[in-house]
Design brief:
The complex is a heterodimer of chains A (116) and B (108). Chain A has 116 residues and is mostly beta strands. Chain A has strands spanning 5-7, 10-13, 19-24, 31-37, 44-50, 53-56, 65-68, 75-79, 88-95, 106-107, 111-115. Classes of the chains: A mainly beta (116), B mainly beta (108).
Amino acid sequence: GAGVSQTPSNKVTEKGKYVELRCDPISGHTALYWYRQSLGQGPEFLIYFQGTGAADDSGLPNDRFFAVRPEGSVSTLKIQRTERGDSAVYLCASSPQTSGGSGEQFFGPGTRLTVL
Amino acid sequence: TQLLEQSPQFLSIQEGENLTVYCNSSSVFSSLQWYRQEPGEGPVLLVTVVTGGEVKKLKRLTFQFGDARKDSSLHITAAQPGDTGLYLCAGKNYKLSFGAGTTVTVRA
């Protein structure tokens, strides 16, 4: 079956611009996660959705970052007033878990964001 | 700041040699996982270890979890070029806390 898909695969923008990154999880997966991976580092947690609600947004670095999942499926990560330090690969993962966090997370290929 | 430290950062070996990568955590998680990531792709789960002292084998890969559930190792026997990739360990409490990874290169 289809895995997690992310669009666009690459995004180049200028400092100060607004960007949206999209994640299509595996059908039926109730949990969705966003991570950010900087060059030479492992992924860092940003936000976790259980259904439509953000169950944990403690990893969002500041209020320029926001994510939504209005229908409990597709999620969009939104970054306002982008800065060069936002350049990274943004990874999305989904999981079939309903609670407790025991389900395996399946990752998408990521969106590589470059802020010039 | 990453809670999990991996070593070495880079490892380059000849095909047929063995290798070991290490992961040490400052915290205890509900489980510890190992992932492999290739360029342009997301991490793919290799194994989950839960119990202190646990040993799991996956073909030529052997995973060990320390008794205190804070350290783990991944050993690859007779490495092949297809084993090349970034190996990540992650502590799991619903969300994942990753180490910085070990880049493994196996030369033919």
